[in-house]
Amino acid sequence: MDPRGTIIKGGRSVVERHQLYARVLDETSPGSRLLIISKELSQSSLRTTENQLVPLEIVYVKAGPFFFLRYLNKSRRIIEFEKGNRVLLIAGDPWISFYFAQVIRNTLKASPGVQLQLHGDIFDKNWKQLRWRNCIKSELAKLSLRFATNIRVNTELQSSAISSIVNTKKVLLTVAPVPFTVPGTLVPEVNNRTRPRSIGFVGRLHSERGTSEFVHLVKRLPIKKMGLDVYVMGEGSERANLETALRNAVDGQGIFFLGNLSGRELEEAWQKIGVSIFTAPSESYGLAMRESLVRGIPIWTFPTVGALELVKCLSKDNTESVRVMDSSANKTELERWLEKSLDIQVPDIIKSRLFTDRSVGLQSLIESWLRQTKD
């Protein structure tokens, strides 16, 4: 259920991720289908590609007056057309998507199951402090959880947090991280001799993703002294402000905004980055962190839930490929850490572990879908 058009707004990489879900679903249970009912947006360039993705299906509902009623009506007709087939409704967030799914479920004779998916660390105090609306959204999410019978989270830490809110004996709780998408034939071989002298910000350009924190860090790093370039991959409402702030912070040094990329362009952009820096105050999982590491690029990050879970996952194999930043570090320490990070070789065992976790999580998600459609 995608009444806000979030999947399409997310761009090609998010659509490709759902194609991956559809493919693994079909391989695990031949004949099973993944269908997205989404709000029609203006991304016509994506639409042609989406319609060619098999077995992923996308049905659009036009935006405009009475959208709520038209979305409900179309969803009902699609589900009723399935007749004897078991259906599971998947809500990608605990708010609008979940409310739509619950209304649709309650208006059908054969009430389908509903899986509520939690991607963000919405119960973390750092996330709630970012905006006053986040406090309200966090409380509403707790209410949604109490009505859910099937919940999907990204990490064990999220699972523990939810266990204090709902009775896990009555809920199917699945830990299934969002799988990173890496075209195997395009993954560059990064090593100490070829890694560029640069740092990179990867992600949505929004205050919640730590754009101001990134600028603050850049001001403290010896960018000019070390002859580093700064790359920014992503788009968002803060792009103009971020670009101005970075150019003021590093006068005369190379600042490059690459925008949203996919395919070969994305892989080529990754090869420009020497160290990836993640400054989001709150992070539930760290998808881009993993995408950086599997390409052989070490990362710096704040001590978020996602970062701590990643460090725990890598345990003794980390070898400082993941640097959890200390806010009390002085400029001399930061320079020393950065020089070391630019020389670090990310061990193959880390890449292998991340790919294994990706496969296990993906299979767990698909099995959680099939389990409820068979119960």
Description:
- With 375 residues, this protein is of the alpha/beta class.
- The chain folds into two domains: 6-179 and 357-374, Rossmann fold (3-Layer(aba) Sandwich); 184-354, 3-Layer(aba) Sandwich (Rossmann fold).
- The protein has helices at residues 6-9, 12-28, 44-51, 67-81, 96-106, 125-130, 132-147, 156-163, 211-220, 223-226, 239-249, 263-270, 287-294, 305-314, 331-343, 348-374, and strands at 34-39, 56-61, 88-91, 113-117, 150-153, 172-175, 198-202, 229-233, 255-259, 275-278, 299-301, 322-324.
- Strands 9-8-7-10-11-12 form a six-stranded parallel sheet, with helices on both faces. The chain has a four-stranded parallel sheet with strand order 3-4-5-6, sandwiched between helices.
- The protein is globular, with a radius of gyration of 21 Å.
- The model is unreliable at 47-53 (pLDDT under 50).
**How large a portion of the residues is in β-strands, by DSSP E?**
5-15%
CATH topology of the largest domain: Rossmann fold
Reported for the largest beta sheet, the result is: 6 strands, parallel
Strand arrangement in the largest pleated sheet: 9-8-7-10-11-12
Shape: globular
What's the end-to-end separation, in Å? 21 Å
Specify the CATH class of the largest domain: Alpha Beta
Keywords:
2 domains, 6-stranded parallel beta sheet, 16 helices, Rossmann fold, single chain, 375 residues, globular, 4-stranded parallel beta sheet, 12 strands, 47% helix, alpha/beta, 14% strand
